[in-house]
Structure formats: structure tokens, C-alpha cells
Specification:
By secondary structure, the protein is mainly α. It contains 7 helices and no strands.
């Protein structure tokens, strides 16, 4: 077993526990919940096999759904983001870079990584809260949840990726 798989498994376990035990209990102003689990999908390398990316994302989503009582919302959202991740990463990679780029502030640059993460987080929050609420009756609350969660999640991702050293 490769050291990369062990690191990835550790990230999966840590992010699942943090999301379920800590972050799901935070509701800033009653609407904003940080969704740090999408950071797991953001960190996958450019040339990672698509089946592996989908499998890892689905397992993380399934764990979060199981312990958060959100039937299928996290697993569907993370799987969709994982399916689109290789295509959303391409515009942010320099042509001179090697084929195995691992997304991060140090490899993509601050602005490119911010926009790439913002795109991924926005897509995740849009799908997650649409599936969780499953109604457009209270669309203002829906938009507040999406917007607030995007802001909190982006703040956490940028702080964690700044502190963390990406190779």
C-alpha cells in the first residue's frame, strides 16, 4: 500500500470526523454551515484515475450522510464535484507544469487556487442545499444557506491550505 493512499485515508477519516462532530453543529446566523468535506476532492491530483476519485468522494459522502442524517445529499454532491473535478482543474493549470499537478496555493498560485476552490465549493453547496431542502418554497433561506456556507467554507479552505505544505 502506497504512502499516498494512507495519507488520503487519514484525510478522509479526519475530514469525516471534523465535518460530522464539529462543523455540522455550526450554524452561523442560523444559515451558514462550513462544508470542509469538499476540500478532500479539491486536493486530488490532476492525473488521478477518475474511478478512484469517484469512489473516494462517494465513500466520504456516505460516511457523512450516515452520521449526519442527510440521506444522500453529501454523497451525491461530493460525487458530482468529483466527477467534474478534472475538467474544472484544467483551466487553472499552467501549460508548462508537469502532468501530475496537485492543487494547492503553492502549486497553482493564490488567485488561481482561490477561483478553483470557489468554483468547486459553489457547485458543492448549490447541489447539497438543493438536495437537503428539496424545495424552492423558501428560496431566500436557500440562497442565504448557500452563500453563507460558501463564504465560511472558502475561509476554512484558504486558511488550511496556507498552513499546510503542499508538495
Amino acid at each position: 500500500m502506497s504512502i499516498d493512499y494512507l495519507k488520503r485515508l487519514l484525510w478522509l477519516i479526519v475530514l469525516a470526523f471534523v465535518q460530522v462532530l464539529v462543523l455540522n453543529r455550526i450554524h452561523l446566523l442560523g444559515v451558514a454551515t462550513p462544508m470542509l468535506s469538499v476540500y478532500f476532492v479539491i486536493l486530488f491530483r490532476q492525473n488521478e484515475p477518475k474511478w478512484a476519485l469517484l469512489l473516494w468522494a462517494f465513500v466520504l459522502g456516505l460516511i457523512i450522510d450516515t452520521f449526519s442524517n442527510t440521506p444522500g445529499a453529501a454523497s451525491a454532491s461530493l460525487t458530482l464535484v468529483a466527477a467534474l473535478q478534472p475538467y474544472l482543474l484544467l483551466p487553472f493549470i499552467q501549460r508548462e507544469d508537469d502532468e501530475n499537478v496537485k492543487p494547492g496555493i503553492h502549486s497553482l498560485g493564490l488567485l488561481s487556487f482561490f477561483y478553483y476552490s470557489l468554483l468547486q465549493v459553489s457547485l458543492f453547496c448549490l447541489v447539497y442545499f438543493t438536495l437537503e431542502m428539496f424545495t424552492f418554497f423558501n428560496w431566500l433561506y436557500w440562497l442565504e444557506c448557500i452563500g453563507g456556507s460558501i463564504v465560511l467554507t472558502m475561509l476554512l479552505i484558504m486558511v488550511i491550505d496556507t498552513v499546510r505544505r503542499t508538495k
